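Apologies for my clumsy wording, but can you show me some protein sequence, whichever is easiest, together with the matching structure tokens, please?
=====
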Amino acid sequence: MNLSASGLLLLKKSEGFRDRTYLDVAGLPTIGFGHRLVHPECYPGGITQTQAEVILQWDVREAEQAVERLVKVPLSQGQFDALVDFTFNLGSGRLAGSTLLQDLNNEKYDDAAGQLLRWDHAGTQELASLKARREAEFQLWGAEIPRQAAA
């Protein structure tokens, strides 16, 4: 399965494009559409949007592969898109160790969808941008908010 156009649009909108290196909310050096720089990567002169699009394709593929590897149950396109965006944003390690994945692999799809909404903090601080992103992922998922998540 591949990330759909809707999923890619959400990801690009959430990440935004920056042609110069910056520190993300976790303090990690980042460039382009949310690409985390890993030593020895360095773009002292910045990058073009075209270069960022190429890097994004590689990063999205890594997130897609992680979702395919970790999820053991069938997914709709919207569920896949939501999980790829989640994994792109937080990393495959966070998905792997999450209650979200545990619920999903136990076929508790509604519970898993509700778990998406819990990932709206950076450290102890709730961030409006993460809250909006998780809500958009939830909408992509296509599930109704479980009662316990709505409270």
Confidence is low (pLDDT under 50) at residues 143-151. The longest strand covers residues 18-23.
